[in-house]
Amino acid sequence: MAELYVVGLGPGDTACLTGEAAAALARAEVLCGYGVYVELIAPQFPGREIVTTPMKHEVERCRRALELASAGRTVALVCSGDAGIYGMAAPVLELAEEYPGAQVQIIPGVTAALSGAAVLGAPLGHDFCVISLSDLLTPWDVIEKRLSCAAEGDFAICLYNPASKKRGDYLQRACDIVLRRRGGETLCGWVRNIGRAGQEHRLLTLAELREEKLDMFTTVFIGASATREIAGRMVTPRGYRLA
Amino acid sequence: MAELYVVGLGPGDTACLTGEAAAALARAEVLCGYGVYVELIAPQFPGREIVTTPMKHEVERCRRALELASAGRTVALVCSGDAGIYGMAAPVLELAEEYPGAQVQIIPGVTAALSGAAVLGAPLGHDFCVISLSDLLTPWDVIEKRLSCAAEGDFAICLYNPASKKRGDYLQRACDIVLRRRGGETLCGWVRNIGRAGQEHRLLTLAELREEKLDMFTTVFIGASATREIAGRMVTPRGYRLA
Cβ contacts (< 8 Å) between A182 and chain B: which residues? Predict the structure, then answer.
C-alpha cells in the first residue's frame, strides 16, 4: 500500500515544474509515464525505476502505475501540462477502485492554456472555454456543439489538439462554426512547442486561422469580442477602468 | 528600461510556485502586489523593495509596477494563481504602451481551476468553462448568458468569485440557470482556501449547491453530464475504454 502521485509537469522542459510536483517526484521510487515526458525529468531525479508506455497506451499506463503502488511502491505517474486537464488523473481515479492498496494524489501543473496564453499576452483574461478537437474519445457532434455554445457565449476559446495527420481539416471545421457567430477579423493566436526548443507563435485573424496548417504540438486561442491586439500581444481585457 | 515580470504564484502558500516563477522573483529588485500575496513570498526573497497596494486598487498596482520598470528597476508584480486568469497580465499589457521603457513578461502559474480540481479529483478531465460570478467589471446579463451557454454545451464549469457580501444570492442565481438544462442530481464540488491552512472541500449535488452559503475564498465546480463520484472523488471521464 503506497502513494501514487499523478503529477503535472507543466509545459515543455521542466522550468515550469512546481515545488509540490518536484517534492512528489523526489519521494517517488518509480517514475511512470509516456517515454518522452519521463525522459525529460529522469535526469533530475536519478536512481528511480523507470516504467514507460507508448503513446495511446494511456489505460495500460494507468494500470501499470496503480499495480506498482498497490504492491507497495511509491509511484509518480507524470503528465505533460496539468494532471487533470486531458491528463491521466481521470482514468487513474476511474480505475483506482480495482487496486485497493494505491493511495492516489493528484498534483496539478501549468496546462498549455495558461503557458500558451502567457506567451501570447493575456488572451484568457476573462471567462474562457477549453475544448479538445480530438475525436478519438469524443464524438465530433459533441465537439461541434461545444464550439457553437462557446462562440454563442462570447467566451475566449482555447483549443487543444487542433490537428493531426488523420484530422487535417478539423481546425477549419472548428473555425467555420465560430465564424457563424464571430467576424473573420476576430483576433486569434497559436503557440507551438510551448516552453521547448523551437517555440514559435503567431497572432492572426479568425479568417486566417481557418487557412492555417497546424500540428498536434500547437495550442490555439480564439478571441472573444473584446479581445484585441496591443503592441503585438493578444489581450482579453476584464474591464478595468484604466484612467 | 527594465523587465516587469507579471508572476502567477499558484494557490495558497508557495508550494505550487514554478521554477520559472521562482527565478523571476529571484531576479526582481522590487516585489509589487496586493499585500497578502507579497507577504507570502517576501520571506523567501529577502532584501527586495516591497510595494503593496490594497484590494480593488488593481489599476494603481499595475501603474506602480510599470512606473518602476520604466525607471529601470527589475520588478515582479505577483498575482495569486495564474497571472493571466482574472489576474494582472491583461491590465498591465493594456497600460504598458504608456510606459515605454518597461519590458513586460508574463510568467504563468497554477490557477484555482487546476489546483481546486486536483483536490476534488479530476472534475475538469474533459472540455470545460471558467466563469467569474463577479459583476464588478462584467454586466450580470453577460454572466447569465455565459452560464446558459456553458450548460447548453454540457461543459464542466468552474466558477470563480462565487459570492461576496454584496452578492449573497449570485451562486443561487447561477445554479438556477444551469438547472434549466441539467438535473438537480448533477455532481458538483467546492474547495475553500486551496493550498492554505484550513483547506476544506465538499462534493454535493447541484440542488444542494444552490442552497450552499460560500465565500470569495471558494472555487466551485459544476459537473458535466458525464461527471460522477468515484470513491469520494469528482471525476469527468474523457472516455477511455478501461478494459
Answer: none
Task: State the SS3 of chain B.
Answer: CEEEEEEECECCCHHHCEHHHHHHHHHCCEEEEEHHHHHHHHHHCCCCEEEEECCCCHHHHHHHHHHHHHCCCCEEEEECECCCCCCCHHHHHHHHHHCCCEEEEEECCCCHHHHHHHHHEECCCCCEEEEECCCCCCCHHHHHHHHHHHHHCCCEEEEECCCCHHHCCHHHHHHHHHHCCCCCCCEEEEEECCCCCCCEEEEEEHHHHHHCCCCCCEEEEECCCCCEEECCEEECCCCCCCC
Query: Looking at residue A46, what DSSP letter applies?
Result: T
CA dist., res. B91 & res. A238, Å (int): 8
Q: What's this model's pTM, rounded to 2 decimal places?
A: 0.97
Partners of residue B241 in chain A, C-beta under 8 Å = 59
Could you give the CA distance from residue A160 to residue A142 in angstroms, rounded to a whole number?
A: 15
Binary contact (B84, A118; C-beta < 8 A): yes
Q: Which residue has the cell 475553500?
A: B192
Does the beta carbon of A155 lie under 8 angstroms from any beta carbon of chain B?
yes
- Is it the case that residue A67 has pLDDT exceeding 90? yes
Task: Give the residue from A91, A237, A216, A225 showing the smallest Cα distance to A163.
Answer: A216
Q: Is the pLDDT of residue A173 over 80?
A: yes
The whole-number pLDDT of residue A1 equals 66
Match 459570492 to its residue by C-alpha cell: B163
Reported ipTM: 0.97
Alpha helices in chain A (DSSP H): 19-27, 35-41, 58-70, 89-95, 112-120, 140-152, 170-179, 206-211
* pLDDT tens digits along B144-192: 999 999 999 999 999 999 987 787 899 999 999 999 999 999 999 999 9
**Average pLDDT per run of 10 along chain B, which is 243 residues long?**
94 90 97 92 94 89 96 97 97 96 97 98 98 94 98 98 86 98 98 95 98 95 98 95 80
Residue of A161, A228, A238, A241 to mutate, interface with B, max B Cβ within 10 Å = A238
Q: Which domains does chain B have, with CATH numbers?
A: 2-107 (3.40.1010.10), 112-235 (3.30.950.10)
pLDDT of residue B1: 66
Looking at residue B231, what is its pLDDT? Answer: 95
**Within 13 A of A208's CA, how many CA atoms are on the CB side?**
12
Q: Shortest CB distance from B84 goes to which of A23, A106, A114?
A: A114
* Cβ atoms B84, B108 nearer than 8 A: yes
Cβ atoms of B110 and B210 closer than 8 Å: no
Model confidence pLDDT, tens digit, residues A202-243: 999 999 999 999 999 999 999 999 999 999 999 999 988 887
